[in-house]
Structure formats: C-alpha cells, structure tokens
C-alpha cells in the first residue's frame, strides 16, 4: 500500500492488541489500540482512522452494539474479530454494517490480506480508462441521490446516509439496472466486478441492510423487491443528474 493507513484495533486482550500492533506496523500500517468501547471512542474523537478492527466480545458494550453505533454516523471500514465461528455470528456482523469478518484464532497474514482488500475497495481510485467509460456520477431515485464520485447517499431531506463500500457497490448495481430482475448470481457478478469481496450467502444480508437504509418500511419494500424464484428487482425510475 502506497500510503500509511491508520488502523484502530479494539480488543480487550492485551496480547492480541500488542501482536497486531507489532505485525501491522511491520507491514507499513500505523496502529493505535483500545481495550474497550470507551477507549475506542476516546481515540476516535482525538484522531482520524482509515479502518477499525473490532472484537465482537468486549467488556461493556459489545462489538455488535459498537459497530451499529459507528455505522449510524460513519462509513469507516470495519473488520470484526470473534472467537465464535458459527455462520449466524458472521451474518449478525454483516447485518450491523461490518465490511468483513475474521474468526479467532486467525493468521495475522490472513488478517493483513483482508485489511488490504477492504482498504483497496474503500479508497479505490479509477484509472483513466475507467473514468472514460464511467457510469453517471449522480443517480436520482425516489427523491434520493447517490453521487458515485463522492460516494455520498442523500435521502429526500438532503441528509447524508452512511454506506459501507459493499453497500455502495450493491446499490450502484441496482441503480445501473433499474426494473431488471437480477438473480443472486447476477448481483454477485456485478458487485464483484466493481472490486468488492462479496459471497453468494452475503447477498441477502446486504440487501437487507440496504432496505433498512432506503425503504420507508423494510419489511414491505417498494424499491428493492424480492422476485420469488427469480431474485431481486429495483422497481423505481432512475434518472441521472
């Protein structure tokens, strides 16, 4: 990575914090650590971070609660760590807005690879060829606006709504194909083609997260509709600004 990204590691185990700090710093990252949510917020109020590594099991507020709070007001990339390996735990982490999920025990090199992947997606800059064939910079739908240059989503009241990198790519895939039925396989290809590491089983979770952000009633969606036996359809007129 060309620039020295700054990472905040939040874990209540000092040995893990120290291990990750040493290892990641050896690979060109700047690393600050915190033992719990209180310390995390203290560090985040004092300086800017490019990515957050957040343990699921923390004293006080747990990682899921903290992730949900952060995601409500920030799109900072989040990788969650947990000693639990059940699929449901991964799904919970994704539902509250985590960008990736690494179960303990983990190989530090694998975590480093995940960090690089998430940072690459989040801070991706298109090359000249991509810019020449770029999609419209502003999509307008149901009084919402998505700016693909700034990656900002604004609701009908002109308020910013934070999106993770994977949520952004998923929404852009829908906006690029309005009123078209897209299977999970279609969405997987569209999203991965834009540089996101998304797996088939995460498609439904990502769509659920998007519905919670853009639908008036996520349980009865009017924008992202489920087509039984077919997949999903973005049922709304989309214009370009």
TrEMBL record:
Residues in Response regulatory domain copies: 6-119
DNA-binding region in chain numbering: 136-236
Protein species of origin: Shewanella yunxiaonensis
Origin superkingdom: Bacteria
Keyword Phosphoprotein: yes
Segments forming domain OmpR/PhoB-type: 136-236
Full protein name: Response regulator
InterPro entries cross-referenced by the UniProt entry: CheY-like_superfamily, OmpR/PhoB-type_DNA-bd, Sig_transdc_resp-reg_C-effctor, Sig_transdc_resp-reg_receiver, WalR-like, WH-like_DNA-bd_sf
């Amino acid at each position: 990575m060309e620039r020295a990204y700054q990472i905040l590691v939040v874990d209540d185990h000092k040995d893990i914090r120290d291990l990750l700090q040493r290892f990641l710093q050896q690979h060109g990252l700047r690393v600050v650590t915190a033992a719990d949510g209180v310390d995390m917020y203290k560090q985040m109020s004092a300086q800017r971070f490019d990515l957050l590594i957040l343990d699921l099991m923390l004293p006080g507020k747990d990682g899921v609660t903290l992730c949900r709070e952060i995601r409500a007001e920030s799109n900072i990339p989040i990788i969650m760590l947990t000693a639990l390996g059940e699929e449901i735990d991964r799904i919970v982490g994704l539902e509250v807005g985590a960008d990736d999920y690494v179960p303990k025990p983990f190989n530090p090199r694998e975590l480093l690879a995940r960090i690089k992947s998430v940072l690459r997606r989040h801070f991706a800059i298109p090359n000249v060829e991509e810019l020449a064939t770029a999609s419209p910079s502003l999509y307008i739908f149901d009084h919402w606006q998505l700016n693909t240059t700034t990656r900002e989503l604004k609701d009908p009241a002109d308020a910013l709504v934070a999106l993770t990198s994977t949520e952004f790519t998923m929404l852009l895939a829908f906006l690029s194909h309005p009123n078209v039925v897209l299977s999970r396989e279609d969405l997987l290809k569209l999203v991965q083609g834009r540089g996101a590491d998304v797996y088939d089983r995460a498609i439904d979770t990502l769509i659920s997260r998007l519905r919670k952000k853009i639908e008036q009633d996520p349980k009865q969606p009017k924008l992202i509709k489920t087509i039984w036996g077919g997949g999903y359809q973005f049922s709304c007129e989309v214009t370009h600004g």
